[in-house]
Amino acid sequence: MIDLYYWPTPNGHKVTLLLEELGLPYTIKPVNIGSGDQFKPEFLAISPNNKMPALVDHQPTDGGAPQSVFESGAILLYLAEKTGKFLPADTRGRVAVLEWLFWQMAGLGPMSGQMGHFNLYAPEQIPYAIERYGNEVRRLHGVMDKRLASSAYLGGDDYSIADMASYPWIGAYDKLPADFAAFPNLKRWHDAIAARPATQRAYALKHQVNPDAGKPLSDEERKHLFGQR
User: Fold this and answer.
1) Residue 86 phi/psi, 5° resolution?
2) Are 145 and 190 spatial neighbours (Cβ–Cβ below 8 Å)?
3) Which H helix or E strand runs over 209?
4) pLDDT greater than 70 at residue 228
5) Shortest CA distance to 51 belongs to which of 65, 69, 26, 25?
6) Is 174 exposed, middle or buried (0-12, 13-18, 19+ CB in 10 A)?
7) Cα angle at 177 between 173 and 181, to 5 degrees?
């Protein structure tokens, strides 16, 4: 029913987390971002920003032609609305989940990505950038910890797409772990999600799809990943 254009990155994990929770049938279409698959015309036809993940639903609810969706947050929202799950139906609950979903898209994801880039992948160490993004990610972790001190999950009492969006970005880089000692509520939340069977199934796809995950990048991979193409 669903084709998922995917590579095992934090943004890719967001969607497999939800699909595994929903139990929807889906087929993974690997997009090897290290070899430049994201620039192929057939992929750009469904993801014009040359970023994965992207999705094609062959059984959309309107019964029409296949529906393509790009951007991870939009995909989460699309699937939640399609199934009526992991997004509250009441107005206030829905607003809370969407607030934290968009918070992740605008803040936690981009800032964590920049932190990882300047610490681990930049050709030269730039202390200002390392400090700037490290401090901002720590601040965002503090925002989450404060929210989770009074709420089981980011959007409220129930697990939702807001949590699935943020979870892959906490400890996304092995060499840059989250400071769980300073943020115990964040740790409690992270541990609870990690223990879910659907989470474990989603992350098991990592080495199935990319057996080289975790290995040093080649010069060619850097060109495709970091805009030097």
Assistant:
1) 65, 20
2) no
3) helix 197-209
4) no
5) 69
6) exposed
7) 165
Which pTM was predicted? 0.93
**Length of the chain (residues):** 229
For residue 203, how many other CB atoms are within 10 A of its CB? 16
Q: What is the 3-state secondary structure (H, E, C) of 119-169?
A: HHHCCCCCHHHHHHHHHHHHHHHHHHHHHHCCCCECCECCCCHHHHHHHHH
- State the chain's maximal CA–CA distance in angstroms: 53
Q: How do residues 65-120 score in pLDDT, each as one tens digit?
A: 999 999 999 999 999 999 999 999 999 999 999 999 999 999 999 999 999 999 99
What radius of gyration do the chain's Cα atoms show? 18
Laid out side by side, the sheet with 26-30 consists of 26-30, 2-6, 54-57, 67-70
- Residue 53 preceded by cis peptide, ω within 30: yes
Chain centroid to Cα 59, Å, comes to 24
Kindly give, in sequence order, each residue whose CB lies less than 8 Å from that of residue 145, ignoring residues fewer than 6 positions away: 182, 183, 184, 185, 186
Which residues, including other chains, have CB under 8 Å from residue 224's CB and lie 6 or more apart?
33, 34, 35, 36, 38, 39
∠ CA 152-21-167, nearest 5°, is: 50
For residues 74 and 81, is the Cβ–Cβ distance under 8 A?
A: no
The total of other beta-carbon atoms located within 10 Å of residue 149's CB is 12
In the block, which residue shows the tokens 């699937």? 79
